[in-house]
Amino acid sequence: MRTYQLSTLIGLTTSVTLSAIAPVQATNLSFDYNQLQFIKSRPIASSNFLGLNGSPTENQGFVPFYNPDPSAPDHGHKEIGLNSRRDFPGFNNAPYYGTGRQGSPEEPASGANRMTTLININSFPTFDQYLTNNGIPFSDIGFVFGQKSDRDFNQTWNLGADIFGQDWYADPNTPLEERIYKANPNDIEIALYSGNTKIVDFGYSDFYSIVDYGSTPSFNDDFESSFTDPIAAKKASDLDPLLAGLATAFLNDVNAAGGGVQIVNENFGELDINFASGNGYDMILLPYPMQIRAVALKAVPEASFSWGIFMFGVLVAVSQRKKLQN
After folding, report:
1. Residue 75 in this model has a pLDDT that exceeds 80
2. Dihedral (C-alpha) 6, 91, 87, 34: value to the nearest 10 degrees?
């Protein structure tokens, strides 16, 4: 989740348009996830996916938010990565929380009911045919990510104790920052909806966020990605026959392609974004192009002993940089 904290400076809900890489161009770009040092999970390539998108102008999208008080534990740590705008007040801390637009703390309330909407289908033949046969438009299918509707805003995915090397990692000599957002599985939901009805419930996963600040401090060469582990999917309960059939069609395609799903978002360059505040938080309203990929379920590797040795070296580098600044 990139940091744009103009709301702190102007105190109002504001729309800002920044230069953006067109979607067609972005599809020709790629990021080498082998560069990651901290996060062990990886996006899994799959030709079986649903493509979804959510824009703030359509009352959808992703909402990183944080306590604007710099001394608060849920303000978010100061960024230290190369080219991260770490020396620019108002642009230098990582958002502590993340949720879908339907869970945004903005005031007045957004009234949103989803984070993203289905826009294309690739190799989900049973699900695709079921939509066609029953006259269900893509726009009816939505995705929800965030705290449950009866939970407090601060029960969504968050950075926990926000400890370097435990919840996040960055190196002042490289432009990458890696963050792991977690939540109580009982407090959140990841789900596929038809209209306002949940049809498929996905299991819990930590939420991984990566920012590559590029070769310059400009926003134009940034890359962002967020994704889950491969997770299980199950049909929601108490569905009518039409929606039960829709959920079954989706699950049949998932099972044929490996039995699990993974949520993957990637952004190259800049985005059209909005800023808002409410309920004691500042927030960024972001577009969220994403895929629900059908993948094999597999375990995420544990951190190795070499990670501890590597971290020791990084801590020394950070300490030396702080001494030089002082």
Report:
1. yes
2. -160
What's the chain's average pLDDT?
85
- In a domain, residue 78? The reply is no
Name every residue whose Cβ is closer than 8 Å to that of residue 303 and which is 6 or more positions away in sequence: 40
- The contacts of residue 228 (CB under 8 Å, 6+ apart) are 41, 190, 205, 206, 207, 208, 262, 263, 264
Sign of the dihedral through C-alpha 130, 58, 106, 163: positive
Note whether residue 234 is domain-resident: yes
Domain that includes residue 186, residue range: 16-64+96-271+284-299
Q: Is the peptide bond before 108 cis (omega within 30 degrees of 0)?
A: yes
Domain assignment present for 46: yes
Tokens 């502590």, residue located? 96
Does residue 175 surpass a pLDDT of 50?
A: yes
Q: What is the reported pLDDT for 298?
A: 78
Write the burial class of residue 278 (CB in 10 Å: 0-12 exposed, 13-18 middle, 19+ buried).
Answer: middle
Share of the chain above pLDDT 70, in %: 80
Under a CB-based contact definition with an 8 Å cutoff, are residues 187 and 145 in contact?
Answer: no
Quote the tokens at residue 313: 């070296």
Lowest mean pLDDT among 123-137, 203-217, 231-245, 250-264: 203-217
Dump pLDDT digits (tens) for 269-289: 656 778 999 999 999 999 999
Name the one residue in this structure whose structure tokens are 């930590």.
206
Query: Quick check: helix, strand or coil at residue 93?
Result: strand
Structural domain includes residue 279: no
d(CA 293, CA 119): 14
Counting the structural domains of the chain, the total is 1
> pTM for the full model?
0.85
pLDDT at 191: 98
- E-assigned strands of the chain? 14-17, 49-53, 62-66, 97-100, 116-122, 141-147, 157-158, 168-170, 176-181, 188-194, 197-202, 207-212, 223-228, 233-235, 259-268, 272-278, 281-285, 290-296
pLDDT greater at residue 221 or residue 41? 41
Sign of the four-CA dihedral 276, 279, 282, 283: negative
